[in-house]
């Protein structure tokens, strides 16, 4: 390789980027428009948004963690207290939806275990099967035979009848 380089063929890059020189003395109207837009619209809007976001960050409210207070059961409501009846019915519906989701989650866990274990599912998924049997039995005891239009009153009557049958069976033994 020769020692003398052709400096014209391989120029060394400039050490600093040159500043472009203006060819005219007339100012660019785009610069004025951008500056005016920044001071008239963007700055006040950004300032107000910063204030609002700061205020909202102090009072964070997580919608997915909504917690309802427990209301009295239908058996604890006074006779003729229709507001208490309504609240107890709403509480019962929420409890039923939660119980349905619990059954569904346990069912999905068992299905995932069966899929994962394959032929060894009876040995390795026994705990999930037992849990599913307990959860479905508890759900069936409480909400079974109520149908789609079941309500808190019919559920309470079902539980009352079941307790009476258990007492009668215990007295006979």
UniProtKB/TrEMBL annotation:
Q: Which domain of life is it from?
A: Eukaryota
Identify the stretch(es) annotated as Disordered.
1-24
Q: What is its main location?
A: mitochondrion
What's its membrane topology? Peripheral membrane protein
Where does this polypeptide localize? Mitochondrion inner membrane
Naming one, the record's GO cellular component terms include: mitochondrial inner membrane
Keywords on record: Electron transport, Membrane, Mitochondrion, Mitochondrion inner membrane, Respiratory chain, Transport
State its role. Accessory subunit that is involved in the functional assembly of the mitochondrial respiratory chain complex I. Complex I has an NADH dehydrogenase activity with ubiquinone as an immediate electron acceptor and mediates the transfer of electrons from NADH to the respiratory chain.
Q: Which family does it belong to?
A: Belongs to the complex I NDUFB10 subunit family.
Any idea what this protein is called? NADH dehydrogenase [ubiquinone] 1 beta subcomplex subunit 10
Q: Which organism is it from?
A: Urocynchramus pylzowi
């Amino acid at each position: 390789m020769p020692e003398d380089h052709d400096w014209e063929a391989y120029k060394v890059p400039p050490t600093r980027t040159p500043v472009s020189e203006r060819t005219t003395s007339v100012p660019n109207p785009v610069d004025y428009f951008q500056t005016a837009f920044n001071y008239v619209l963007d700055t006040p809007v950004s300032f107000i948004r910063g204030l609002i976001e700061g205020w909202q960050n102090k009072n964070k409210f997580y919608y997915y963690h909504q917690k309802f207070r427990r209301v009295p059961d239908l058996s604890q409501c006074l006779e003729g207290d229709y507001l208490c009846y309504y609240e107890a019915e709403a509480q019962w519906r929420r409890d039923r939806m939660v119980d349905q989701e619990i059954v569904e989650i346990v069912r999905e866990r068992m299905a995932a275990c069966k899929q994962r274990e394959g032929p060894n599912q009876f040995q390795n998924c026994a705990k999930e099967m037992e849990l599913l049997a307990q959860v479905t039995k508890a759900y069936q005891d409480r909400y079974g035979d109520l149908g789609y239009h079941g309500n808190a009153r019919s559920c309470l009557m079902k539980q009352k009848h079941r307790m009476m049958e258990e007492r009668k069976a215990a007295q006979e033994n």
